[in-house]
């Protein structure tokens, strides 16, 4: 993928002879598949892009809990409620692993959260859409977590050790998330016509925003080429998006649902699905903060952070007291 990106001359990639001897040695380790660890020398730009990506990934996990939390008290059965709670709890854990991985790069948790709350740092656009029915819990597990798995599995082999290792556990839990989502969709599609229509309505609303999760097109991506050279990104945005389409269309057909894309069709020649144009104006509008739920999501996160200040202070006071007692002993 890196060679193809460099070939097409995408932004920011420098050739080896433009690098310093240290950077060349670093790149050689990357090219040999060596995992970079926190104490290893790394270019500032490598550190910076990892802090950017890993922290935004962590923010996505934490903000991603909010759309689903809306349906915990409305789950149709106790079992569905328990499964949804377990999933939401997993997402909190994913956020913690990822914040911890980001902290190994020399940035504080408080700084990362301040960047989220100020709007300086992003989180995945997908979490700025409302969850209007129980079927959205199915569509989110099936499509959003399904997309996340496709994007995250390659990250288990990325060049930065703490990030790659965090991803191994995250991916194992994500597969449960996707399965429980598809199970909800199956139950609805086998139910009454109204329930099946609810599932179709959810697919109609979540299909395109899920494809946007993979980022802009390769030609428009500002970070892909450099991330590919540093083996942070092992496959391009478009390649992973295509995998999502190819994997999900047969699943929609099995449910008896229609993917909301009139241009979707199997391409015998490529052995992949051709699909319609993504509405990049919508994508950039959501990234600019104008999605249906952007304000609400950030307000909720800021309030949770403020409401939790007493608990963080108590933890720090307890730890300091313990430390003083140990020092005096
Ligand atoms: N939402 C918000 N911002 C997005 C985005 C999206 N769907 N797609 C791209 N962007 C942003 C990028 O962050 C970048 O902005 P920045 O430079 O200010 O950070 C800009 O758009 C250009 O995009 P690029 O493709 O050039 O940027 P990247 O190389 O970073 O690729 C990415 C974007 C594919 C999202 C990559 O960052 C990535 O793979 N991140 C790790 C996975 C991740 O964060 N997934 C989010 C969902 S997590 C999730 O779903 C949890 C699950 O449990 C449900």
Properties at a glance:
single chain; 329 residues; mainly alpha; two-stranded antiparallel sheet; 14 helices; 2 strands; binds 3-hydroxybutanoyl-coenzyme A; Ferritin-like_SF; Phenylacetate-CoA oxygenase; Aromatic_CoA_ox/epox; PaaA_PaaC
Describe this structure in words.
- The chain has 329 residues and is mainly alpha-helical.
- The chain contains 14 helices and two strands, in the order H-H-H-H-H-H-H-H-H-H-H-E-E-H-H-H.
- Strands 1-2 form a two-stranded antiparallel sheet.
- 3-hydroxybutanoyl-coenzyme A is lined by residues 52-53, 56-57, 60-61, 64, 91, 94, 122, 124-125, 144-145, 148, 151, 174, 212-216, 221-224, 227, 233, 237, 287.
- The site of 3-hydroxybutanoyl-coenzyme A has 30 residues, from helix 3, helix 5, helix 7 and helix 10.
- This is Phenylacetate-CoA oxygenase.
Short recap of the structure:
The chain has helices at 2-7, 21-31, 44-63, 65-69, 78-103, 109-118, 135-152, 161-189, 193-212, 224-229, 237-255, 280-290, 294-307, 309-328, and strands at 265-267, 272-274.
């Amino acid at each position: 993928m890196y060679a193809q990106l460099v070939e097409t001359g995408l932004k920011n990639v420098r050739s080896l002879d433009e690098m310093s001897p240290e950077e060349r040695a670093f790149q050689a380790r990357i090219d040999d598949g060596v995992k970079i660890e926190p104490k290893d020398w790394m270019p500032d730009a490598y550190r910076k892009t990892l802090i950017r990506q890993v922290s935004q990934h962590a923010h996505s996990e934490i903000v991603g809990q909010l759309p689903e939390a809306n349906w915990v008290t409305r789950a149709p059965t106790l079992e569905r409620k328990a499964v949804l709670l377990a999933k939401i709890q997993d997402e909190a854990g994913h956020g913690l692993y990822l914040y911890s991985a980001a902290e190994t790069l020399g940035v504080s948790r408080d700084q990362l959260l301040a960047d989220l709350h100020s709007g300086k740092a992003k989180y995945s656009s997908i979490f700025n859409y409302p969850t209007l029915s129980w079927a959205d819990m199915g569509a989110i597990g099936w499509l959003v977590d399904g997309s996340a798995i496709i994007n995250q599995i390659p990250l288990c082999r990325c060049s930065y050790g703490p990030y790659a290792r965090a991803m191994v556990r995250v991916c194992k839990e994500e597969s449960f998330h996707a399965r429980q989502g598809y199970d909800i969709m199956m139950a609805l599609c086998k139910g009454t016509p109204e329930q099946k229509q609810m599932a179709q309505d959810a697919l109609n609303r979540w299909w395109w925003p899920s494809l946007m999760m993979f980022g802009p097109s390769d030609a428009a991506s500002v970070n892909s080429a450099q991330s590919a050279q540093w083996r942070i990104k092992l496959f391009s945005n478009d390649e992973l998006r295509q995998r999502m389409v190819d994997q999900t269309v047969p699943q929609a057909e099995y449910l008896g649902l229609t993917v909301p894309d009139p241009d979707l069709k199997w391409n015998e020649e490529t052995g992949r699905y051709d699909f319609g144009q993504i509405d990049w104006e919508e994508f950039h509008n959501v990234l600019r903060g104008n999605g249906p739920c952007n304000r609400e999501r950030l307000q909720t996160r800021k309030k949770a952070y403020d409401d939790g200040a007493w608990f963080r202070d108590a933890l720090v006071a307890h730890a300091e007291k313990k430390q003083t007692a140990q020092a005096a002993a």
